[in-house]
């Protein structure tokens, strides 16, 4: 995987209340109603999306292929918290309550409404959900292993909030506060487990093996299924890998699905 370290043309942005640089790179944050939300700069680069045939836990829809992202983008340091959702939408839809826990029980359609309202509050924010390829690139953070921290033997509950079993689900778990587990090499928290994350894309069962540049998915009807990535609190360990990809109806609400914001290019 190659990563171009070009910095964004404008930094910080006009909406930023805080900004800086650390061992993970550039970051900037906005504050709304005393709720702080930070983004990490993800420079352009090339990586292998999907999984090799020999990877344990692999699913058929994880076609291994080279992806080049020619433009960098900003991605949420964490998933959207319940506190931020409450401040913007004046409602608390989550099943597991806690200001610093990720918002869940929100559909893809709900996420689009949230983005619309927050964009009206902060017109300078050019918000959207990440494209699926952007999400996996950021999740891997320069790695090609099943997880950003290594392989199956490196998976622990200290690193990921999941069922605790490689091949079994557990409905007795719950979400954990964001930043409860270590960040990946690019400063992003809980890209594995805790809650599934909606992506902008409509679902494609097979992405193919040909190399692609800046994939954004294909247009589809309003009712087309959307992509979710990352795994969740009750999901088996094999379904929290970097390459895991599933789909659901855009109006479906689940207590293990939330969102991570992207500022786009």
Explain what this protein looks like in three dimensions.
With 265 residues, this protein is α+β, with helices and mostly antiparallel strands. The chain has a single domain, classed as paralog of FGE (formylglycine-generating enzyme). Helix content is 12%, strand content 22%. The protein has three helices and 13 strands. The chain has helices at residues 82-89, 108-121, 132-140; strands spanning 2-3, 18-22, 25-32, 35-42, 45-49, 65-69, 73-76, 196-202, 212-213, 226-229, 245-248, 257-258, 262-264. The strands form three sheets. The protein has a five-stranded antiparallel sheet. The longest helix has 14 residues, at 108-121. The protein is globular. The two termini are 20 Å apart. The mean pLDDT is 94.
Q: In percent terms, what proportion of residues is strand?
A: 15-25%
* CATH topology (fold) name: paralog of FGE (formylglycine-generating enzyme)
Mean pLDDT: 94
Helix content: 10-25%
* Span of the ends, CA to CA: 20 Å
Low-confidence stretches: none
Shape: globular
């Amino acid at each position: 995987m190659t990563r171009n370290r070009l910095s964004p043309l404008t930094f910080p942005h006009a909406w930023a209340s805080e900004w800086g640089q650390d061992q993970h790179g550039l970051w900037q944050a906005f504050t709304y109603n005393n709720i702080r939300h930070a983004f990490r700069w993800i420079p352009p680069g090339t990586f292998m999306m999907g999984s090799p045939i020999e990877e344990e836990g692999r699913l058929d829809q994880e076609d291994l292929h080279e992806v080049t992202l020619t433009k960098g983008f900003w991605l949420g340091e964490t998933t959207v918290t319940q506190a931020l959702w409450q401040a913007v939408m004046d409602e608390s839809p989550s099943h597991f309550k806690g200001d610093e826990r990720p918002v869940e029980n929100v559909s893809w359609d709900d996420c689009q409404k949230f983005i619309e309202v927050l964009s009206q509050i902060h017109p300078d924010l050019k918000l959207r959900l990440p494209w699926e390829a952007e999400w996996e690139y950021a999740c891997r953070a320069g790695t090609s292993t099943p997880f950003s921290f290594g392989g199956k033997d490196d998976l622990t509950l200290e690193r990921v909030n999941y069922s605790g079993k490689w091949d079994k689900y557990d409905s007795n778990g719950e979400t954990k506060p964001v930043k409860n587990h270590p960040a990946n090499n690019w400063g992003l928290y809980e890209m594995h487990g805790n809650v599934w994350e909606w992506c902008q894309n409509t679902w494609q069962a097979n992405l193919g093996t040909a190399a692609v540049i800046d994939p954004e998915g294909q247009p589809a009807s309003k009712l087309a299924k959307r992509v979710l990535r990352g795994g969740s609190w009750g999901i088996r360990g094999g379904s929290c890998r970097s390459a895991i990809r599933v789909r659901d109806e855009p109006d479906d609400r689940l207590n293990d699905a939330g969102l991570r914001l992207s500022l786009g290019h």
